[in-house]
Amino acid sequence: MKTRGIMRSTAPSPFQVERTADGTFHFHIGDTTVASYVTQPPTAQLESPRPLLHPLRSLAGEVVTLSRPGDHLWHTGLSWALPNVGDDNFWGGPTYIRDQGYVQRANNGRQENIEITTADASTDGITLTHRLDWLTELGEVLFDEERTLTVRARMDAGAPAWALIFSTAMRNVSGQDIPFGSPSTAGRDNAGYGGLFWRGPDSWKNGVIHTVAGPAGEELRGSRAPWMAYTGHPRSGSSTSVVMVDDSQNPTYPTEWFVRTEEYAGLCPAPFFSDELIVKADDTLRLRYAVIIGDSDSGSGSEGSDVAQWAEWGRQLLGASR
Q1: Are 222 and 232 in contact (CB under 8 A)?
Q2: Looking at the whole model, is its pTM more than 0.90?
Q3: How confident is the model at residue 303 (pLDDT cuts 50, 70, 90)?
């Protein structure tokens, strides 16, 4: 694979970041490529083009994302996807219209990478920061975003995991107040998706959801919690979990959650699930999340305690990185 270079720390480190010619950044922890961040995806306008993380892998090498599945082409691994930004759709596909249902409109916006300002690996982890413009289908810029991805790892023998800290600052440059919502705020019951959305592999369907209250299922959709986890069993005798943690400084903390287990594996902290949040002209919306991907031995019966420990680690990382 031809590359434009690998940024290396000066001291021995398990972390490396590699940029390839197509503008994709590959994050390495030891011998595992844990994430590929596609900053310039060759995506059709109908799918609301945006940077995406796929594939994501656990430290054991398990792939935990699915991109562009046949049922929803606009589900792209892990991505910052918002279906109701004023009249515009930055999720992909049709828009839910009250009393009409889903309608395909000429309103699919895109997130355009403008500049990579930081891409560095150190002994502590990886940091990537870039600037993006949010453009409507007609080309109007609504938001100027600064986004930072930070990678950390814990190599505990019993329950190894790595974390991605996702931080966004979206400044409204449209000159108008813009409401952020969801299909639920537009009238569709219990469909408040939109935010940092994870789509899991087909083999993860009918997995187990974890919260502070313990294991559960899809009935948790729309509930509020400081964190939520999805556990799948990609291979015999093992389990892998995706844990998502809401930052206590986020404006709707503890957030509502969008989760699917029966039709597909999906998880999303959904800050605009039930109520619109209006970002005034020239104001900046700031949101942060931790995403932890961990492996454990399902035979030990410890996966519940593992995800709780990983969630606590994510909370600590969010606090330490302010």
Answers
A1: no
A2: yes
A3: low
- Please answer whether residues 120 and 136 qualify as being in contact, where contact means their C-beta atoms are separated by less than 8 angstroms: no
Of 296, 3, 280, whose CA–CA distance to 156 is shortest? 296
Q: What pLDDT score does 156 carry?
A: 72
Write the CB contacts of 138 (distance below 8 Å, at least 6 apart in sequence): 106
Of the listed ranges 10-14, 29-33, 66-70, 193-197, the least confidently predicted one is 10-14
Query: Is there a cis peptide before residue 49, judged by omega within 30 degrees of 0?
Result: no
Cα 18 to chain centroid distance, Å, stands at: 20
Collapse the DSSP code of 315 into the 3-class scheme (helix H, G, I; strand E, B; otherwise coil) and give the result. Answer: helix
Q: Please count the helices (runs of H) and the strands (runs of E) in the chain.
A: 1, 23
Q: pLDDT of 86-103, one tens digit each? A: 999 999 999 999 999 999
**In the prediction, which pLDDT does 233 show?**
73
**What is the model's pLDDT at position 304?**
65
User: For residues 93 and 72, is the Cβ–Cβ distance under 8 A?
Assistant: yes
Cβ neighbour number for residue 130 with a 10 Å cutoff: 20
Q: How far apart are CA 8 and CA 27, in angstroms?
A: 11
- How far separated are the first and last CA of the chain, in Å rounded? 36
- The full 3-state SS of 243-312, as one line of letters, equals EEEECCCCCCCCCEEEEECCCCCEEEEECCCCCCEEECCCCEEEEEEEEEEEEECHHHCCHHHHHHHHHH
Residue 38's CB: how many other CB atoms inside 10 A?
Answer: 22
Alpha-carbon torsion angle 84, 86, 87, 92, nearest 10: -30
Question: How many other CB atoms are there within 10 angstroms of residue 199's CB atom?
Answer: 28
